[in-house]
Specification:
Number of strands: 12
Largest sheet: 5 strands, parallel
CATH class of the largest domain: Alpha Beta
Number of helices: 8
Structural class: alpha/beta
Strand content: 15-25%
CATH architecture of the largest domain: 3-Layer(aba) Sandwich
CATH topology of the largest domain: Rossmann fold
Order of helices and strands: EHEHEHEHEHEEEEHEHHEE
Number of domains: 2
Helix content: 40-55%
Distance between the termini: 40 Å
Bound molecules: calcium ion
CATH superfamily of the largest domain: Response regulator
Radius of gyration: 17 Å
């Protein structure tokens, strides 16, 4: 599927903002669905089956964060980009904590949103085209099936966590610079800060490590970045 034909669901209760985002995504060639509440969004997740959800945090009724949690549970391969208002710094981190792949602070340039959506779609398409399995000790990353197993039990990863884990596992024993990891996983046109990366690493550790505070796989290289353990 070409990245521009991807289906995107825009969830935002403020009509002017929702229309503005929808219009820009339509012009860029995407198929766009719209929801003005969390309830509508949950319904459209099934009937419209979007690849990407652009999700406002502040919604009446079911909040964006609850919708995000629901997506992670029932449609884990869906890419989630949270929208947050300026100054809601905790919300940014909350969005990532709830399993969002990225966030944008309102007001934003719609071209930047489109660039990020394209980068993230390219990344996931590349993952699907690769046919191999990477494994280390009790972990197995099946790139063809887009699945991750710990102790032979499938563990759900978000698309971003999957790409991050692939990058790390492909470079055992090598210290990876945080900026380079951001470029690889989020795309070179991403201007986010490295805090985003740290939050995703923390979440990833919680899923793959037996003891996340004493990580065996993902080591911190202080003042530099992260390193996958050296294969013995
Ligand atoms: Ca809102």
């Amino acid at each position: 599927m070409s990245e521009n034909k991807a289906k995107i669901l825009v969830v935002e209760d403020e009509e002017s903002i929702r229309r503005f985002i929808t219009l820009n995504l339509n012009v860029a060639g995407f198929q766009v669905g719209e929801a003005s509440s969390g309830e509508d969004a949950l319904g459209l997740l099934k009937s419209f089956a979007p690849q990407v959800v652009v999700l406002d945090i502040m919604l009446p009724g079911i909040s964006g964060l609850e919708v995000c949690q629901h997506i992670r549970e029932f449609a884990p391969e869906t890419i989630v980009i949270m929208l947050t208002a300026k100054g809601q710094d905790t919300d940014k981190i909350l969005g990532l904590d709830f399993g969002a792949d990225d966030y944008m602070v309102k007001p934003f340039n719609p071209l930047e949103l489109i660039a990020r959506i394209k980068a993230i779609l390219r990344r996931t398409a590349n993952l699907r085209n690769t046919k191999q399995i990477i494994s280390d000790l009790n972990l197995r990353l099946d790139l063809a099936a887009n699945k991750f197993f710990k102790n032979n039990a499938e563990t759900e990863l978000t698309p971003t966590e999957f790409a991050l884990l692939k990058t790390l596992m492909e470079n055992p024993g090598r210290a990876l610079k945080r900026d380079d990891m951001l470029d690889t996983v989020w795309g070179e046109d991403y201007f986010g800060d490295t805090k985003t990366l740290d939050v995703h690493i923390r979440r990833l550790r919680e899923k793959i490590e037996d003891n996340p505070s004493q990580p065996e796989y993902i080591k911190t290289v202080w003042g530099y970045g992260y390193r996958w353990r050296q294969e013995s």
